[in-house]
Amino acid sequence: MSAPYGGGPVSTEARKPMTLHRLREMHAKGEPIAMLTCYDAGYAKLLDGAGVDCLLIGDSLGMVVQGHSSTLPVTLEQMVYHTACVARGNRSAWVIGDLPFASYQASNEQALHSAAALMQAGAHMVKLEGGGWAAETVHFLVQRGIPVCAHLGLTPQSVHALGGYRIQGRDEDSAATMKRQARELADAGATMMVLELVPSALANEVTAGTPLITIGIGAGRGCSGQVLVLHDMLGVTQGRQPRFLRNFMEGAPSIDAAIRLYVSEVKARRFPDDAIHGY
What we know:
Blueprint lengths: L19 H10 L3 E5 L3 H9 L4 E4 L3 H4 L11 H14 L4 E5 L9 H14 L3 E3 L6 H9 L5 E6 L5 H4 L9 H17 L3 E5 L3 H10 L3 E5 L7 E4 L1 H4 L21 H13 L12
Parallel strand pairs: 1-2, 1-8, 2-3, 3-4, 4-5, 5-6, 6-7, 7-8
Helix pairs in contact: 2-4, 4-5, 5-6, 6-8, 8-9
């Protein structure tokens, strides 16, 4: 039986600021990490107060805030703006800023410029998509004091190259490639990794086979933690929805209660359902 909306209030005054060291400890102890996307100060304060561990300023804002059909139109300037908004509303959660499309692929120097802009706006860590070539970029950033979250599986910035929103790593060759790329990114210095739309068994292998703090979205409950797009989990997004998604607003008396329920379900490993994948 699920706990009623995550229990009592979480005081941001009493909650110590989340650190990379604390996230590593949670991963080592098997304590699930609850992450949600966030795009403004008001929701940052609400999510932080509800006990969300990590706030991801995702380039998903291009779709759920700006109304685009993909994340590709989002600019670095827009990501800096939303990162600063979230940072002003947050007190305790770990803040991760997405590097948007074409803001880091050209060169290591471009990646450093873009990452520095997000860090100066208030991010504690930056996230970038891709394996293979991206390992060099990760190493370059980490050597300059910038914590990096990698992203494998379905990488939305490459949605056209991947043929749409499809499960990745289903065959033996692609699964082996993903595991190799995960190890390369870990060796390059990435601390965290989002695994999106991959089979739960593969996500479990990556989690067990690398020191990475893995955050799943459509990747099963065996990851170190979970992330959802805020608008999706609140039932705001219209149109076709991923099958793994759960609308936490159903039956909830408030947005705050829905967010607390999400946190409690992730912490108890009752969300997601490993049997449900895909769109």
